[in-house]
Write a structure and sequence with these properties.
With 212 residues, the protein is of the alpha/beta class. Helices cover 36% and strands 14% of the residues. The structure holds S-adenosylmethionine. S-adenosylmethionine (SAM) binds at residues 7-9, 33-37, 39-40, 57-59, 61, 66, 119-120, 135-137, 142. S-adenosylmethionine (SAM) binds next to helix 2 and strand 2.
Length: 212
């Protein structure tokens, strides 16, 4: 199924996310920080093994940055524009993007995801995640926080917007680069992609991604 859920991520980056989630070992766990309407969530979900769980964290808060006035969004959303309008109207009515998230993903996917409505710092972490996709707050401190909170010696960390609108995301780029040194990871950014990956230098992901 084509991913028509409104959002900013490119098809290429969504494909990369899907491929990586399909590589997660049986019975492991995936975490997404920052879901918005579920564009990346769906790509993480659709090719994962059935035994692999997917958890998401988002405040789903309607704010100046993520407002429901989609026709006048300062930023361009990819995906289905009609669905974007429906999702924003519903979310405005319910005063949370969570309603739009549910609409876009559909009942089946929605009920199979572990949803946490909070900030990443409020989230009560009780287990490790094999793959973590970080696309919540993009300022330096929040990205550092999210990496520090969810990194393990062997898990794969991925995030969006490395190099997108360079000046705007310098804090994010700085945080990722700093973490590359701090955690002795391989930092990979593929061509025509805004994704960053911090690949561990030991364990499953080192072998699985050695072709890169
Ligand atoms: C760039 S959007 C995510 C886009 C999404 N990955 C997609 O594919 O469309 C960032 C999201 O992160 C959420 N967010 C921002 N700061 C956050 C934080 N500190 N903790 C949790 N969620 C946060 C926002 O509510 C927003 O929905």
């Amino acid at each position: 199924m084509i991913n028509n859920i409104p959002g900013w991520m490119t098809s290429r980056d969504l494909d990369i996310l899907s491929k990586l989630s399909s590589l997660c070992p049986e019975n492991s766990s995936i975490l997404e920080v920052g879901s918005f309407l579920g564009r990346s969530t769906y790509s993480l979900y659709k090719n994962k093994k059935d035994s692999v769980s997917l958890s998401v964290i988002d405040t789903f808060e309607i704010s100046n940055t993520y407002n429901t006035d989609v026709e006048n969004f300062k930023y361009k959303l990819d995906g289905d524009p009609t669905l974007a309008l429906e999702a924003s109207a519903l979310s405005e009515k319910e005063n949370s993007w969570l309603s739009g998230f549910k609409l876009c993903l559909g009942e089946d996917v929605y009920t199979n995801i572990n949803i946490n409505v909070c900030t990443s710092s409020q989230y009560n972490k009780t287990k490790d995640f094999e793959l973590v996709f970080i696309d919540g707050g993009h300022d330096r401190d929040t990205v550092l926080h999210d990496i520090d909170k969810f990194v393990t010696p062997t898990n794969l960390l991925i995030g969006d917007d490395f190099g997108a609108q360079y000046m705007k995301y310098m804090g994010l780029i700085d945080a990722v680069s700093y973490s590359k040194i701090k955690y002795n990871r391989t930092l990979v950014c593929l061509d025509n992609s805004r994704l960053w990956m911090l690949i561990p230098n030991t364990g499953y992901w080192k072998e699985a991604l050695s072709v890169l």
